[in-house]
Write a structure and sequence with these properties.
alpha/beta, five-stranded parallel β-sheet, four-stranded antiparallel β-sheet, 8 helices, 12 strands, elongated, binds calcium ion
Length: 231
């Protein structure tokens, strides 16, 4: 699941991005409101959540929030700000923010607020996904499969394999192009090899193959990939 972060303080942005990466989120981080808006407007990427700093070069967090809501975009928004007066809080919420965090804050609090927003976000439902006897639980970051005796066995996936499997499980029976997978599962400025999507799908397939799921993700030549739930 991808999060949009707009924060111009480099140290803070880096800490937030790293912490979210550890929680298996993918983060597109912008340091400028105008640039973030250009990207949001292009709609090349679907975000699950946005974290917007209030004061930014270019458009402010409040202005970004207002523009998104004016377009009817329901993206859950958490505002970050150094302001903590009641009038500012009201202004943030009036602009359409869903929640509000005053700097300085602890990362654990940010993560807790995001989990709360995520529980209310339709895009993040359900938190538990299943195909066949393969189960992925986003809230605990685990993937398990039942063995012959019905006992759950954990699959040890890298972050990227987990994110890829989650995305496929949220979009079963759909052909997902390489471009779409790239936009949704890699950060915008990620430096990657040219065939990174194909390489990651191969790695994931190999792990799934150990549990009899080597045919779960099918390659559709010239178009992309599709998860075919076992009948
Ligand atoms: Ca700022």
């Amino acid at each position: 699941m991808k999060i949009l972060l707009v924060e111009d303080e480099l140290d803070l942005g880096r800490i937030i991005q790293n912490s979210l990466n550890q929680e298996k989120y993918i983060v597109d981080w912008f340091q400028d409101g105008d640039l973030a808006w250009q990207y949001l407007e292009s709609q090349a990427t679907q975000y699950t959540l946005a974290i917007l700093d209030w004061l930014l070069p270019g458009l402010s967090g409040i202005e970004l929030c207002q523009r998104l809501r004016a377009q009817g975009n329901p993206l859950p928004i958490l505002m970050l700000t150094a302001k903590d007066g009641m009038a500012d809080k009201v202004a943030g919420l009036d602009a359409g923010a869903d929640d509000y965090l005053v700097k300085p804050f602890k990362i654990v609090e940010l993560l807790a607020r995001l989990r709360a927003l995520q529980r209310r976000s339709p895009q993040m439902q359900p938190q538990q996904l299943q195909v066949g006897n393969l189960k992925l639980d986003f809230s605990t970051s685990t993937v398990t499969v039942q063995d012959d005796r019905g006992r759950p066995q954990s699959l040890f996936l890298t972050n990227k394999e987990f994110q890829l499997l989650e995305y496929f499980m949220r979009h079963p029976n759909q052909i997902l192009s390489r471009d779409r997978l790239m936009n949704q599962l890699w950060e915008i400025n990620a430096e990657t090899i040219s065939n990174v999507v194909a390489a990651q799908v191969r790695l994931l397939r190999r792990k799934l193959g150990e549990y009899g799921y080597d045919k779960l993700i099918e390659t559709i030549p010239g178009m992309g990939y599709r998860l075919n739930p076992p009948s």
